[in-house]
Amino acid sequence: MIREEIPCLSNIIKVQAKNNANCSDNGGNELSLLIEKGHSISCPGIHCYNHLQRSPVTWYKNGIRVMFQEIRQSLKLKDDKIYLRYIYEQDAGIYVCDYILFDNSIQWTMRRVVRVKIIARNTLHIPNILSPNGMKTLEVEVGKPLKIECKVFFGFESDFLPMITWYRDNKGSKSEPLLQKPTRIRVEELDGKSFVHVATLREVTERDLNSNFICFAQNSVGNATGVLKLKRKERALFIFILYGAIAVLVGLLVGSAFVYQHWIEIVLMYRNYLAKDETIGDCKEFDAFVSHAKQDSFESDSTFLNEEQFALEVLPEVLENKYGYKLCLLERDILPGGAYTDDIVTAIQQSRRAIIILSPGYVNGPSIFELQAAVNCALEDNMIKLILIKFKSFQEPESLPPIVKKALKILPVVTWKSSNSNSPNKQFWKYMRYHMPVKNTRGLGKNSLKFFPHRLFSVVINSRKAAGRSQQTKK
C-alpha cells in the first residue's frame, strides 16, 4: 500500500470584540431622532481608525443605497454622514454604513448598523380617556357577568410609565379596586399609544347599580378619570322584538290566508299576464270536449235550466264568447254519419280538456261511456285533463265501471248552483278558467256577457213554449 502525504494549510483569524477595542468614540447602534427637527446620522466607530487609510463610506437604508435625490433636498451626504435638515416619520429604519480600511497590504471591510427610531416630543397633556368619557351610563342585566372597558390615549413620553386602573366609588365609604385584566395596547402611533383596560364583575348586583365605577389613568404630566354608572336594562327591546315577531307571524298568517282564499284569482292573473300559452304547437283542435246527458224534452222540467241547455248555451256563451276557448260540442262540431264511439274518442283526443256535466241522467244513462272514454284517453295522453261539473246531485250506481268510480273519487269537481247567476265574475267560472288550459285570450271584449242573462232567460221561456207545444201535439 502506498500512502501519499498531503501538506496541511492552516489560517489563524484573530477576532477582537467591540467592547475591548481601544477607542472611546465607538458609537452606538441605536439612534432616536426627533420628528420635524434636523439631525445627522454618523457611522459608529469610524473615528477609531483615523490612523489608517479608508475608502469613502457607503450608506444603505433597509437594504437600499442612500443617494442624494432632487425630490429630497433636505437629505445630504457629506463627510461620511447623512444630514437630515427636516426629519420625517418615514426616515425610521435600519441604516448600514460600509467602508474599507487599508492596513499595509491587508484590506478590511467594515460594516456597522444603526437602528434609527423617529420619536415625537414629550407630551404636555394628561391622559385622554376616550371611554368612558366624562360620565357615562351603561344598561345592564342584574345577575349576569359584566366586562367594563376603559380606553385611554397617552401622549408620547421617552420615559413612558402609564398607569390605568378601575375602582368602585362607594359614595362616601372607602373605594375598592376591581378584578382587572392586564392592559393591552390598542393602537400605537408616533405621537402616542391607545390602551384598553378591562375590569370584570362576576355578577351584577343591586349594589353595583348604586355605585360609580371610575377609570383612573395617570402619566408624568397628571391624571384623568372617567365615570361609568350602571343602570338596570329595560325590557323594551325584548318587548319590541317580541311584538315585531308576532306582527311578522300574523302578517304571514294573514298573507297565507289571503293567498289561500284568492289562489284562483292569483293564478288567473298570472296566466293572463305572464304565463306562456300552452296550446301553441300541441296539435290539438279544441280546448275542451263537452259531454252531457241527452234528455227528451217531454221528460225534462222546463222551469229550470237543464244540462243540455247548460252544455249547448251557457258554456259556449261564457267560455267561447267571453274567454276565447274553443269547445267541441257533439251536436255542433261532429259530422253525423260516423260511428258514435269512434267519433267520441277522436273528439276527445283532439281536445285538451274533457268537461263532464254530471247529473242523475248522466251517470245512469248511455252518456257514461263518454266519461269512460275520456278517462282512458287521459291515461294515454297526459295533455288531456278531465273537468267534472256537478250539475245536479246524484248517487253512483253500482253498475259503473271501476275506472269511472275511481275517476269520480279523485278528480276535481266544480259544482254548479242553479240558483246563482252565471256571471263570469262568480266563483264557478273562476274555477272553470283555473282548470282550463293556459291560453292567450287577451283582446276579447269585457262586456261580451252584458246581455247574456236576458238571452238565457229567453232560452228557458222558449224551451217551455216548445215543451207545451210538444205536449199539445202528443195529445
Automatic annotation (TrEMBL):
Residues spanning the membrane: 237-260
GO cellular component terms listed in the entry, alphabetical order: membrane
UniProt GO MF annotations: hydrolase activity; interleukin-18 receptor activity
Residue span(s) of domain TIR: 284-436
Keyword Hydrolase (UniProt): yes
Domain of life: Eukaryota
Residues of the Ig-like domain: 7-97, 127-231
Bilayer disposition of the protein: Single-pass type I membrane protein
Compartmental location: Membrane
Family under the similarity heading: Belongs to the interleukin-1 receptor family.
The name this protein goes by in its record: PHD finger protein 3
Species this chain originates from: Platysternon megacephalum
